Amino acid sequence: MSTIGIIGGAGWLAGALLRPALAKSMVRAEDVILSSRRTAVAGFDAWPGIRTTSDNAELAAKSDIVILSVRPDDLSGVEADLSGKLVISVMARMPGSEISKRFGCDRLVRTMPNASAEFGQSFTPWHASPNVTSADKAFVASFFGASGIAREVPNEPDIDYFTGLTGSGFAFPALMARAMIEHAIENGVAPDLADVAVRQLMLGAGTYVSVSKENAAEIVKTFVDYGGTTSAGLTAMIERDSDGVVKAGLDAAWQRALGN
Ligand SMILES: NC(=O)c1ccc[n+]([C@@H]2O[C@H](COP(=O)([O-])OP(=O)(O)OC[C@H]3O[C@@H](n4cnc5c(N)ncnc54)[C@H](OP(=O)(O)O)[C@@H]3O)[C@@H](O)[C@H]2O)c1
Question: Is the pTM for the entire model greater than 0.85?
């Protein structure tokens, strides 16, 4: 069994990815090493076999697979020789060429999970550099598959695009939920009632959109064509360029992912 080291292992995303993989026995606790500069690594009481260190060089020496999960601005503080390892980056805004040059690795996978990984509902695109082996790819598919749907994408720039589209996780849908709750309160609904109502609405909507035979455009058309109150609401939103607002937000996130 390969040893997996996670640099930044005390962080939010590292835990959100690792706990489902451990719970589904995709990895064994005794094969995992986590590093952090100063924070105690919490959240793994159920897996006491996990090792921790503050020394990234030690983690690298003991690991066959190294996952980079520090914030982009912290990468310059990571000292490790990752030559000969499978290196997996979950980092936004960090091109593969920079990672390979800095750490001397030639088997690199860039991925972009999101925070829904914790409850097994991330969408995680991944891109492999040419030297990544089929065994490496099988590990990536299995590890990230434990926390959602993992799909290989053909080009590295796809990862930068998906950083905006799905890397933001539930944040963009939460913006719509916020507006709906505010509208309900402004129109006399008690805040706790508005909150529970919209939470349930988002759950039902997410479930329906994910399982429906109709795609999103077809669902919208069905309701517009039906001609009732929902149609009135959708038409008003579309006429005020709801699509344009969403696309402007995605453009801004994409540009940020590209470092612009
Ligand atoms: N959160 C998300 O939803 C999300 C989604 C997609 C991608 N990402 C990417 O995932 C990466 C991690 O994000 P996050 O949200 O998990 O951030 P985070 O919670 O701040 O975790 C980063 C961890 O890195 C550790 N760290 C920093 N420098 C280190 C070093 N030199 N050696 C070892 N550990 C170090 C920090 O702990 P210490 O301060 O104790 O060292 C911290 O626990 C980022 O690059 C981000 O772009 C995040």
Answer: yes
